[in-house]
Amino acid sequence: IGLNYSSSDYDIRHSFNGNYVYSPKVPFNNPIAKAVLGGWSIAGTTLFHSGYPFSVVDSSVRTAQGVGNLAGLGTNTFLADWVGGGNGYPSCNTPNVSCYSKSLFTSAANQLNFGNIPRNSFRGPGYFDADLNVHKTFSVRERYKLLVGVFAYNFLNHPNFDLPFNNVASGDFGSILSTVSAPN
């Protein structure tokens, strides 16, 4: 029962969201300088959060141990048994190297339980996004203004990676092979 107490699927430990707007004032009284240099605005959004938690499972335990439909759990997979050591559970931050290896977990033939660590004990890579817009306001008449601008989403072109494959029985276990889309 103690292993049921753990992080939720959307537990984000660190989050930063920022919005900014900068509209410089033209220090000149010259009407031509005000028309060219005035009316500009720069605005943007910055979003960062730490990685989502996930569980490491082993789908081959059910067949290796000959477990049938135990208490209605016929399609569920078992959490993998952790043997990786006492330094805590490593996070996964980069797609360049595999985050975990099969040697950190008990083989399916030797696992005799439903897992020895709580669900969602591991963390995936974080998320970062920066959007920018630049626009200029033109006075058409005394009462009317025209706004022309450019919007750049993810203007730093920073990739955000998905969670690694979490099934020990998979050939891609511990590898990050995809990116995530921007949040809505």
Taking pLDDT < 50 over at least 5 consecutive residues as the criterion, the unreliable ranges are: none
Question: What oligomeric state best describes the polypeptide chains here?
Answer: single chain
Count the DSSP helices: 2
Q: Look at the structure and give the mean pLDDT.
A: 84
Question: How are the strands ordered across the major sheet?
Answer: 1-2-7-8
Helix content: under 10%
Order of helices and strands: EHEEEHEEEE
- Main β sheet profile: 4 strands, antiparallel
Q: Strand share of the residues?
A: 25-35%
Distance between the termini: 36 Å
Derived structural class: mainly beta
Q: Rough shape? A: rod-shaped
Rg result? 26 Å
Total beta strand runs? 8
What key attributes describe this structure?
single chain, 184 residues, mainly beta, four-stranded antiparallel β-sheet, 8 strands, 6% helix, rod-shaped
Written account of the structure:
The chain is mostly beta strands and 184 residues long. It has two helices and eight strands, in the order βαβββαββββ. The strands form three sheets. It has a four-stranded antiparallel beta sheet, with no helix packed on it. A two-stranded antiparallel sheet has the order 3-6. A two-stranded antiparallel ribbon has the order 4-5. The chain is rod-shaped and about 85 Å long. The mean pLDDT is 84.
